[in-house]
Design a protein that fits this description.
Layout: E1 7-14, E2 28-37, H1 38-57, H2 66-71, H3 78-81, H4 83-99, E3 103-110, H5 111-117, H6 124-142, E4 149-155, H7 159-173, E5 190-196, H8 203-220, H9 227-233, E6 236-242
Parallel strand pairs: 1-4, 3-6, 4-5
Antiparallel strand pairs: 1-2, 2-3
Length: 243
């Protein structure tokens, strides 16, 4: 049997990593790694998220999705017509994130600035993934997780997209990154990617989804009030904005 890590990692992104048609209103790509101890995840985070859902909808099958919450779409449409319920939901969601025992590593790429600085800019996803993997490596080293299998869970985007991401992930894990230098020996851990659909309703993946956009907005519009980021900021173990 493999020696599993004490930690589980859930990853999600905000924005797209394309460098051709950049949205001038949101020229950002952000990747977040939400790292949690498995015992705390099962004992605290999952029950808290299920409790929130049971309290608002009476069942726990709703998948928390930042875009749908922000636009009041799908099962979140009820929040548009019931202001008191929306206030309660947002208060409980903020409290859940605030008390969740997790560490967040995030990388943000301002794509317009990135394209302006480099003649042949690297893929934003590769940059962001490498940064988050470096910070994860440092944390796992401090926690003495060497030799253990560490699962990093991503939302499935489609066969081609998943295959491309897995290839880059395994390049980094195998010390074969395009970056051309190596500050960390990733082979000291058995990093394994896992791809699941949003419909799998994984609590950790939903937390990662809820953190990515507020982090990106904190870099795009630093002077704009950002209550979500104020809460997330207390969980940050590392945040880097490129370039």
């Amino acid at each position: 049997m493999p020696d599993f890590s004490d930690f589980i990692v859930y990853a999600d992104e905000s924005g797209d990593h394309g460098m051709v048609n950049i949205d001038p209103q949101y020229p950002m790509f952000a990747l977040t790694f939400c790292v949690m101890r498995k015992d705390a995840y099962t004992a605290e985070i999952v029950p808290a998220m299920q409790g929130l859902k049971f309290g608002i909808w009476g069942h726990d099958t709703v998948v928390l999705h930042e875009h749908e919450i922000r636009k009041s779409l799908g099962p979140f449409g009820v929040l548009r017509t019931d202001r008191a319920l929306r206030t309660r939901f947002m208060d409980e969601l903020n409290a859940l994130i605030e008390t969740a025992p997790m560490t967040i590593y995030a990388s943000v790429i301002h794509k317009e600035k990135h394209r302006a600085k480099y003649a042949n800019p690297w893929n934003p996803y590769e940059i962001a993934l490498h940064f988050c993997m470096e910070r994860l490596h440092m944390m796992l080293t401090a926690e003495k997780q060497h030799g253990k299998t560490v699962h990093v869970v991503f939302e499935s985007r489609g066969a081609r997209e998943d295959a491309e991401l897995e290839l880059e992930f395994r390049r980094i894990a195998g010390n074969d990154s395009h970056w051309g230098y190596r500050r960390h020996d990733f082979s000291r851990f058995d990093f394994q990617p896992v791809f699941i659909p949003k419909a799998a309703n994984a609590s950790g993946l939903q937390l990662a989804d809820l953190t990515a956009r507020p982090i990106a907005l904190s870099q795009l519009r630093p002077d704009q009030p950002n209550r979500a980021f104020e809460i997330i900021q207390t969980k940050l173990g590392g945040l880097k904005c490129f370039p």
